Automatic annotation (TrEMBL):
Residues 44-266 form the Mur ligase central domain. One of its GO terms (cellular component) is cytoplasm. GO terms for molecular function: ATP binding; dihydrofolate synthase activity; metal ion binding; tetrahydrofolylpolyglutamate synthase activity. Gene3D superfamilies: Mur ligase, C-terminal domain, Mur-like, catalytic domain. Keywords: ATP-binding, Ligase, Magnesium, Metal-binding, Nucleotide-binding. It catalyses: (6S)-5,6,7,8-tetrahydrofolyl-(gamma-L-Glu)(n) + L-glutamate + ATP = (6S)-5,6,7,8-tetrahydrofolyl-(gamma-L-Glu)(n+1) + ADP + phosphate + H(+). Residues 294-406 form the Mur ligase C-terminal domain. It comes from Ruthenibacterium lactatiformans. Its EC number is 6.3.2.17. Belongs to the folylpolyglutamate synthase family. Coiled coil: none annotated. Pfam families: Mur_ligase_C, Mur_ligase_M. This is tetrahydrofolate synthase.
Length: 422
């Protein structure tokens, strides 16, 4: 297959399994020679903050001189973002070759009567096959959904497991309490790996993480917020001291300061396992990390901010960041997927926006612009439903004296970013 054919094949697979589990990926990896067995992992789960922590830690390890694979999910701009080696995306030609091999293995399983693979099974297998071929020293691997039943949980050699901020998302699959959701996320723990927890977990979630870590005989570290100081800085700059490390965090928001503290602790845990990571690598790696659509400032004059926050916790983090920058009366373009608690998201954003243009993101699960507008009118004084993202951006940019924010979905962020950066 060429690159386009490879993408067409992988996207043709079902998105969700009828019976979720890790067995699909294990069987696929076995057909491919179990490439994951030659790799070591930092496994990153949680509701919010997984991607930011993954790319920051991968940047630290690369700065320390290691050959680092990183896999993030979902991608924002291009499918190849899921396959990163030392910060660079896989080439189209190599990805086509890898996916061709994965397809052959999948068809072998189908011939044996195993026909339940989903898209993320194939993506995970391709990721691990490529990282093994490239002889990565370590892989920073972001969970797709949950943890216990996620495709990425087919890996075994987990040195460090990061449990990022726990929130109520995907409750139909993971449970409707913090404890239940945290339990699913902690399904990635392997015996004797070091567990690093986000420092501001809901207490119910933290209790479950503590219990699960003890059962797996895993040392548990949670950054102490008394050791974290956030400096006063210009809007959208994030300067933090954590445990004596003066950090320049490249992503705005207090939540990203907390994520950076997790990354520092993960790096220190890897040092205890034999990795040589200098203080300079920690400082320079965090400062040099890049990740689109995480309260990303595309322009300051006029102000244009793009954020992929797609659940209530993410919306609250965005709102807190905008308030911290002293901003109000902004104009927003918003698109939200069904099932993402849109009412709660809109309520969190209500103090920030005077004018809202609603759109339908490019996803079959997205709310229509009209349905979202009907909800938004309960929270914002001016609401307009738009036929397309292009129309919404055109109207919003002409009606944004205080600045423009595009938010609500990573699908929307992917559509809008290319249009806004032209």
């Amino acid at each position: 297959m060429d690159y386009e054919q490879a993408l067409e094949w992988v996207h043709s697979l079902p998105r969700l399994a009828a019976h979720p589990g890790v067995e699909n990926t294990r069987r696929l990896l076995e057909k491919l020679g179990n490439p994951e067995k030659s790799l070591r992992f930092v496994h990153v789960a949680g509701t919010n903050g997984k991607g930011s922590a993954t790319v920051m830690l991968a940047s630290v390890l690369h700065r320390a001189g290691y050959r680092v694979g990183a896999s993030v999910s979902p991608y924002v701009l291009e499918f190849r973002e899921r396959f990163l080696l030392d910060g660079e995306m896989i080439s189209r030609e190599t990805l086509a070759q890898i996916l061709t091999e994965v397809r052959a293995a999948a068809e072998g399983l189908r011939a044996e009567g195993w026909d339940s693979l989903v898209e993320f099974d194939a993506v995970t297998a391709a990721t691990l096959l490529w990282f093994a071929r490239e002889r990565c020293d370590i892989v920073c691997l972001e969970v797709g959904l949950g943890g216990r039943l996620d495709s990425t949980n087919a890996v075994e050699n987990t040195l460090v497991a990061c449990i990022m901020c726990i929130g109520r998302d995907h409750t139909e699959l993971l449970g409707d309490t913090y404890a239940a959701i945290a339990g699913e996320k902690c399904g990635i723990l392997k015996n004797n790996c070091t567990v690093i927890s986000y420092p501001a977990q809901p207490q119910e979630a933290m209790d479950e993480i503590t219990l699960r870590a003890a059962k797996a005989h895993c040392p548990l570290v949670a950054p102490d917020l008394q050791d974290l100081h956030i400096y006063k800085a210009p809007a959208f700059e994030n300067r933090v001291n954590y445990g004596g490390y003066d950090l320049v965090v490249p992503f705005p928001g207090v939540h990203q300061a907390y994520n950076a503290a997790v990354v520092v602790e993960a790096a220190l845990a890897l040092c205890e396992k034999g990795f040589d990571i200098s203080d300079e690598a920690i400082l320079g790696g965090i400062a040099g990390a890049r990740f689109p659509a995480r309260i990303e400032v595309l322009s300051r004059r006029p102000l244009v901010v793009l954020d992929g926050a797609h659940n209530p916790d993410g919306a609250r983090a965005l709102a807190a960041t905008l308030r911290g920058a002293g901003l109000s009366g902004l104009t927003a373009v918003i698109g939200i997927l069904d099932g993402k608690q849109p009412e709660e998201m809109l309520s969190a954003l209500a103090p920030c926006f005077a004018r809202v243009y609603t759109v339908r993101p490019d996803s079959p699960r997205a709310l229509s612009a009209e349905a979202l507008a009907a909800l938004a009118k309960r929270h914002f004084p001016q609401v307009t439903a738009c036929d397309s993202v292009e129309q919404a951006l055109r109207l919003a940019r002409g009606d944004a004296p205080e600045g423009l924010v595009v938010c609500g979905s990573l699908y929307l962020a992917a559509q809008a970013r290319g249009l806004l950066t032209k």
